[in-house]
Amino acid sequence: MQYRRLGHSGLQLSALSLGAWATFGTRVGRSEARELVAVAWDHGINFFDNAESYAQGDAERMMGDVIADLRLPRDGYCVSSKVYFGSAASPRPTQRGLSRKHVHDACHAALARLRVEYLDLFFCHRPDPDAPVAETVWAMDTLIRQGKVLYWGTSEWPAALIREAADLARKHRLHPPTMEQPEYNLLHRRRVELEYAPLYGELGLGATTWSPLASGLLTGKYNAGVAEDSRLGHPAHAWLRPGVLEEGRRLERARAFAALAAELGLAPAPLAIAWCLRNPHVSTVLLGASRVAQLLENLQALDLAERLDAAAWRRIEAATDV
Description:
Elements: E1 3-5, E2 12-14, E3 16-19, H1 30-42, E4 47-49, H2 58-70, E5 78-83, H3 100-114, E6 119-124, H4 133-145, E7 149-154, H5 159-171, E8 179-180, H6 190-195, H7 197-202, E9 206-209, H8 241-246, H9 250-264, H10 268-277, E10 282-287, H11 292-298, H12 301-307, H13 310-319
Parallel strand pairs: 3-4, 3-10, 4-5, 5-6, 6-7, 7-8, 8-9, 9-10
Antiparallel strand pairs: 1-2
Helix pairs in contact: 1-2, 2-3, 3-4, 4-5, 10-12
């Protein structure tokens, strides 16, 4: 495993990490989750990502249960949660958003579900138009000073709002955001590579990127249609289909990528993940696996990122029509 600093912080995260979205508590049961975490840990993964809204809190409960069962040393791994959407099926106004109250309540609820005394990383899952940025920054700073959170950050925030939060933190000598968690893959590049470009040096921002396989599209498994046992075939994720399959000629570009991967004699999934790893601003790439075999295949990305030459990467980018 390789380890990278989280932006300009001193925290070392594994270059590949394990996330729980759309797997833990839904498609993955406890025994499978335990095996996935055990294999990830055995291969050097030290960051496990979660959120209050994943499976309405069940993903965090499951992850906390299996990590405790495996007796992983608390100083050897990092765990995260995210706040905004809430964990209730139909959250009331104070059960969602980024108000001081919900940030406080969500943090303590995540601590209980994950069975830890502090969160290593705590993300604001989306911007909240109903909560002042200053209120959210103060709430996060309070949690850090209380020892409940070590680093806080954002997920899918516009660059201007991240900069506003950082400027406000500096002005009042508060802890600024350390990281952002954006989508990043061969079919979705603009925000990470262009919009956030000034923030990496200016703020020391780290990126913990998600969806390196574009919701599975870059594996090639949707090239001939959507199978019932796939993520997009699951009723709970039907809302993903239009964006994943239809926007910006995504399916056509994914098919071209799969064809090139076959020509190179490489599996498309680890190849797509390896491409993400080549970005020096990416602190860690989140993997979402439902089977151990899938996780092991994806871990091959570490070798591919170092092995392929520049000419091969140029062909890969050209194939996806960037």
